[in-house]
Amino acid sequence: MRFNDTLLGLLILVFGAMVAGYARTFPSMPGQSVGPSLFPTVIGIGFIFLGAALSASGLRRGERPAIAAGAPVPSRRARIGFLLVIVDLVFYAVAVDWLGFFLAGFLFLMVLMRAFGVPTLRAAAVSAGVTLAMHYGFYTLLRVPLPWGLLEPLAW
Amino acid sequence: MVEHLIAGVGLALDPYVLGVVLASALFGLFVGAIPGLTATMAVALLVPVTFFLPPIPAVACIVTATAMTIFAGDIPGALLRMPGTPASAAYCDEAYAMTRRGDAETALGASLVFSAIGGLLGTLVLMSAAPALANVALEFSSFEYLWLVVLGLTCAAFVSPGRPLKSFVSLLLGLLVATVGFENPAAYPRFTFGFTALMSGLQLIPVMIGMFAVSEVLRYALAADSPVQEVPQAIGRIFRGQWEVLRRYPLAAFRGGAIGTVVGALPGAGADIAAWIAYGVSKRFSKTPERFGSGHVEGVAEAGAANNAALSGAWIPALVFGIPGDSITAIVIGVLYLKGMNPGPTIFIENPQNIYAVFVIFLMANVLLLPLGWVLIKASKNVLHVPRNVLMPVILLFCVVGAFAINNSVFDVGVMLAFGLIAYLMEANGFPIAPTILGIVLGGMLEQNLVTSMIKAEGSLLAFVERPIAAVLCGVTVLIWMSAAAGRRLRPQP
Where would I find the H helices in B180-326? Predict the structure, then answer.
């Protein structure tokens, strides 16, 4: 997703104002001129200036704030793939403790590979192989406590 | 120094370390040879692994993998005209022109030999410059460190490709990320919004994995599937004629190595910028500049040496000051802290044998590059055909397991995903990532030294430039700002 400079500048400016405003609520340190709010305030003001400059450069070219035109629109499949990357990550994080690494990892790979167009049989074979290999590497060699979840009775 | 070196050799030749070196070398070669996977990504993926290794193998892992990755990026560059990593982009067309002429062996051989030479030269400079600089740095107070950080961040913002305005936004974002948590001079929890997980700040590892690996997978998911190209021909004898090339262009090796080391040592500029500059310099001073672009080995050799030298160069400020020379060393600094090898001038006093072991591993990795690189070139037909749609999900699982393994917290996976999206949006809108990373790594140091200096100065601005080195560093910073401003004014407006 691309934005033009005018809109980007505006967003950065507003963000900077929010940062600086929030930083003003930090307490000051008794007896000292510099407190925890100084540094974030400076950063916020920096964002405001940079955002204003970016917006100004866009406005000088006659740009109205907008999502940049001309960028190629990704295909439906590509957008679904993009969303699935995000959904899949969330799924893994939520489900891994319950399902265990083997099942969660296998499903994680299967879903994405199918979304990226890998044939089902091949995706299943690779997913199984990679899950096993990664389990060996992290669990056996590096001793990372990957969860067993539903497969707890089989744990080694 | 000699006894430390010997102790370092002993540590580096440990069979466990050698095993790690070999494994990470293979990993690095593979990652480098796949276009779209960068050296920084290789490191980001390795960090969770290093987390569970002892200090020396952990660092060995990163050193070896990066040296291999930067070379391996030349292979798809020469064979398919697709640079494997951005560091190979500068001379990709040149090397591809050689391949089309039927000279793939010479192009790849020169890449390999000069990569190793460049890497070795850079390491020798690192070995001699870093301890010497550390001696000077022992005298530094908060004023010198403050200016050093400001200088480093200034470099990072100005040398990044793209508009300085956007580079500074990237930089500020990094500095802002660094303020999260209560690790600040006042120990006040900032921007935690009630999350206890944010109290100690955003964890560097999930942030890095998100910005360098998850963003790449997201970009892949959105890009239209590009068909895999055929590797044009069988590769013959790679090392044949390389002695001839080296004899004809000895200067290329040294100048490339030197340029690479210096550019690498500048904060924010890494192997990719080093290669562009070295290629440009090579053409400018060549006896036959007209042959550049038509498949001339001289530029490939010089730039190939430069990008590998830059890797070592970047370690100089990273080890001595804790200021990363590129985004790879930005991650390395995080790893060094995790492993109790805190960067800074005292690293050469407290645990010198560890640092010398790192130097020895650098040398070893660059020598090992020759045989392993040879194998990879021979196997390139197979490696380049690994389907991307299988590889990307595997990388993503590796990311999520890595981010998860460290704290077993779902929160870290969220952080990784959030920064993956942020990095994706930044790149799509022309904001460079490197300044953000430097900002995250240096933000704490900047604030700490700023606050300490302000308290010490008691309101006197003069105190900031009273000490000679502080004054020089301040002067250089101001000069860079002024020349950048003048450059903008002189440049014709589009």
Answer: 204-209, 215-222, 242-248, 250-265, 271-285, 297-321
Question: How far is the C-alpha of B200 from the C-alpha of B183, rounded, in Å?
Answer: 7
Tens digits of residue pLDDT in B121-167: 999 999 999 999 998 888 888 999 999 999 888 888 887 777 888 99
How close A87 gets to chain B, by Cα (Å)?
A: 10
How far apart, in whole angstroms, are the C-alpha atoms of residue B348 and residue B350?
6
Give the tokens for residue B93. 């067309």
Centre a 10 Å sphere on the Cβ of residue B471 and count the other Cβ atoms it contains: 15
Q: How far apart are CA A93 and CA B414, in angstroms?
A: 8
> With contacts defined as CB-CB under 8 Å, which chain B residues touch A105?
397, 401
Sorted by where each begins, the domain ranges of chain B are 2-226+239-486
Contact B149, B323 (CB under 8 A): yes
> What is the model's pTM?
0.86
CB atoms under 10 Å from CB of A60, counted, come to 10
Q: Tell me which residue in B172, B218, B429 faces A85 most closely, judged by beta carbons.
A: B218
User: CB A113 to CB B397 under 8 A?
Assistant: no
Coil vs helix vs strand at B113: helix
Q: What is d(CA B294, CA A116) in angstroms, rounded to the nearest whole number?
A: 38
For the stretch B176-192, pLDDT in tens is 999 998 877 778 888 88
The residue of B149, B169, B173, B445 whose CB has the most chain A CBs within 10 angstroms, and thus the best one to mutate to test that interface, is B169
Which two three-digit tokens encode residue B226? 């590009």
Interface with A, mutate which of B389, B415, B419, B440 (most A CBs under 10 A): B389
DSSP category for residue B181: B
Rg, chain A, Cα only:
24
The residue type at A102: F
Q: How far is CA B410 from the centre of its chain?
A: 29
Instruction: Give the pair of three-digit tokens for residue B481.
Output: 């700002």
Residue owning tokens 């302000």: B454
**CA B283 – CA B265 distance, rounded (Å):** 23
Q: At a CB cut-off of 8 Å and minimum separation 6, what does B487 contact? A: none
Rounding to the nearest 10 degrees, give the CA dihedral for residues B447, B449, B453, B454.
10
What distance in Å separates residue A29's CA from the closest CA in chain B?
7
- Closest residue of chain B to A78, computed from CA coordinates: B222
Nearest residue, CB atoms, B393 vs list A1, A116, A145: A116
What ipTM was predicted for this assembly? 0.92
